[in-house]
Specification:
The protein is α+β, with helices and mostly antiparallel strands. The chain is built from eleven helices and eight strands. A hairpin with a 5-residue loop joins strand 7 and strand 8. The termini are far apart.
Length: 265
C-alpha cells in the first residue's frame, strides 16, 4: 500500500492526472488483480481517489492525515496569529508548506470576501511564481534552487512571472533582503500576494504565512501587507521556539499575540 502511495505521488509530481489499475501494476511490477484488491480499501477510506475514467490519485483524506501528522505545535499556534492578522488586514491568511517544487496550503483563516482568489487549501501550486513559494526558498542557495526546479521549471501563467530559473533566484534574493516576498501578476494576472517564512526551534523554515488577493484590493498597499505578514511570521516563529504554555497561559496561546501587529519592528 505504501508503494501505491509512492507511485501515485510521483505521478502527481510529474503533472499526470493519475494512474489506472493497469498503470499502477506496471509501475510497481506487480499483478494487476493484486493491485486492484489493495486499491479498494484505500479508495473506500478516501486515501486514494478514483475518477469516472478509472484514474487513481492521492486522496484528500491522505493529505489531511499527513498535515495532522506534521508539526502539531505549528497547527495549534498558527491559527490564532493568522486570525488576528486577517482581522488587521481584512484579507484571508494562509499557512503553506513545501513539498518538493510545489507549495501546499494547509490552513486558511480569515474573513470571507465577495471576491477572493481561488480556494487554496489542499491545492498544489508552483514554488517559483508564488509569494509563499518564494518565502519557503529564503534559505536555499542559488545552486539549490537550480537543482530543485530546473527540470520542471516553466514560466508561470501571469504576465510578470519569472522567465528563467536565474530570474527566480534573483527574486528570492531580493525578497530575502527585505524579509518578505511580494508578487504581482505572476501566478495569475490581477492577483497579488505577500508572504514570509516561519521557522522552527532550530531556525529551519517549515512554513510560510501568506495572503493572496485581487490586486485592486492590496497592490497599492502591498509593502505594508508584507511587513505585517513578516511581523506575524516572526512572532509565530518565536512562539514555536518557546516552551509550551502553562495552563494559566492557555488563553494567551488560543488568542494569539497581545502585541499589536500594526507596530512593525
Amino acid at each position: 500500500m505504501l508503494a501505491i502511495f509512492e507511485a501515485l505521488s510521483h505521478t502527481s509530481q510529474e503533472g499526470n492526472l493519475g494512474l489506472t489499475v493497469s498503470g499502477l501494476a506496471r509501475a510497481l511490477a506487480r499483478d494487476k488483480s493484486s493491485v486492484s484488491r489493495q486499491l479498494k480499501p484505500l479508495v473506500d477510506l478516501g486515501l486514494v481517489e478514483r475518477d469516472a475514467t478509472g484514474l487513481h490519485r492521492l486522496g484528500w483524506k491522505l493529505f489531511a492525515v499527513a498535515a495532522q501528522a506534521g508539526d502539531q505545535r505549528l497547527l495549534l499556534l498558527a491559527p490564532p496569529v493568522m486570525r488576528q492578522l486577517a482581522t488587521l488586514l481584512g484579507e484571508r491568511v494562509h499557512l503553506s508548506i513545501r513539498r518538493n517544487e510545489d507549495v501546499f496550503t494547509i490552513v486558511s483563516e480569515g474573513p470571507q470576501q465577495v471576491i477572493e482568489a481561488n480556494v487554496w487549501v489542499g491545492r498544489a501550486v508552483p514554488i517559483w511564481c508564488t509569494s509563499s513559494g518564494r518565502a519557503l526558498l529564503f534559505d536555499h542557495t542559488s545552486d539549490e534552487i537550480h537543482a530543485l526546479i530546473e527540470k520542471t521549471f516553466s514560466k508561470g501563467p501571469g504576465s510578470q512571472a519569472p522567465t528563467s530559473v536565474d530570474e527566480v533566484v534573483a527574486r528570492v534574493e531580493n525578497a530575502r533582503l527585505q524579509g518578505y516576498a511580494l508578487v504581482v501578476d505572476e501566478f495569475e494576472d490581477g492577483l497579488s500576494g505577500a508572504a514570509a517564512p516561519v521557522r522552527d526551534v532550530h531556525g529551519r523554515i517549515i512554513a510560510a504565512i501568506n495572503i493572496s488577493a485581487p490586486s485592486f484590493r492590496i497592490a497599492d498597499n502591498l509593502t505594508h501587507v508584507g511587513r505585517q505578514i513578516a511581523q506575524a511570521a516572526t512572532y509565530l516563529s518565536r512562539s514555536l521556539s518557546s516552551p509550551p504554555a502553562r495552563s494559566k497561559d492557555n488563553h494567551h496561546a488560543q488568542n494569539g499575540p497581545n502585541t499589536d501587529l500594526r507596530r512593525t519592528s
